[in-house]
Amino acid sequence: MRFPLPADTFPPLVVSEEDQFDLQRLSKEFINEALDQYGDFRSSGGVFDKTRWKPVKTREGVTAYRDLKVTSLEASRVAPHLQVGSGAMTASTNLHGVVAVGTIDGKFNDMMFGLLNSNTEMVKIKSSYTNDKMVDAKVLATIVAPTPQEPARGLFIKWGVSMGAPALFRKVVRPRDFVYLESLGILHSESDERIGYSLIHSLQIPTIRELAEYQIVRANSSICLLFRQKASGQLEIYVQGFVDAMGNIHPSIAVSAVADGLMSYDKMVHCGQMKKLNWLLKTKKTVLLDFESSECVVCSKSASRSKSCQVCMNTMCARCSVTKKLSFLSHLSRRVSKRSLVFCMRCNLAAREADALGIAAEELLRLNPFECYEISEGSTTSSTPASPSSTIPPDTTREFFG
Length: 402
Fold this sequence. Notes:
By secondary structure, the protein is of the alpha+beta class. The protein folds into two domains: 17-264, START domain (Alpha-D-Glucose-1,6-Bisphosphate, Chain A, domain 4, 2-Layer Sandwich), CATH 3.30.530; 285-400, no CATH class. Helix content is 24%, strand content 32%. It contains seven helices and 18 strands. Residues 377-402 are annotated as: Disordered. InterPro entries: Rab4/Rab5_effector (IPR052727).
């Protein structure tokens, strides 16, 4: 089968005001439940009960644990029947429990910016930066939209297709798709500490039918991420995950896949950092020299094999340059492809230090919110610095979403 699927695969989803209210309430209940459990975890000194939780994987500073006792979600996680379109919308309850905790490198705002993808185009950009194995996706409905005043807040109904089975099993395990509620935002503790959250919870909506003719299995998941700035440049994450992969996939494979996913939130930090580079490439908010020079703009040494920074357009030597792969949207087809671009260390640092949520707010104020990510069709090789609206040679090794 070929992705993306036709644009008219699903009819437009209409969500009543009553359903919108119920979904907001449901989101708050799940997040508050996760906050309570995260509070208990911190109160216990960050130690799990070994009789209930079994470590399954460790990656750098993050460890994933499998719940030995839970076979279904608690009754509190059952969604009410919500009338959406012509049918009832409910949440799945037959799921396997996994929790991941630990620390990752990064800044709070960069993580939040990486998590923000309030429309289908930005879901594609996020997938290309995180390599999350999503091969198709769509924002079906927006319940709460982010605003320039609150750019890190949103509530959506989304659909996505994942090829997330381990490579060894992909020829025998069919792709899974998900219809889910996504909620994200920032809360403040009693001590005024910021706690970021991201909730994904499966919904069953009759008008968003299962896609048996494409050999896709409808699966269910529930994931709630909480994170805080534990120290400068270090985030603490607490992630609850539940999955019901459906079909004939063994639970151990499903649990392993969920554990991998829960331990990969460092990719969201990377996504936020790369989106900041997209922004800097478009806005060029760094100092430009008004004369040409053969000296490196960073170290002032003579650059024998000089390159030009894609942002400030100044000369740089090889030691003071860095190559980054940025993701761009095709202006017409809306496909996503990656371009390898060269930046000076100064501009790269400027992007890393930029306020990610300030950039998110600025993007929302633009007439074209995709301005920092769009690129013209038919790009050709060019040796001169280029902006996203100019011609930048594509990285032909991979295109995302078609």
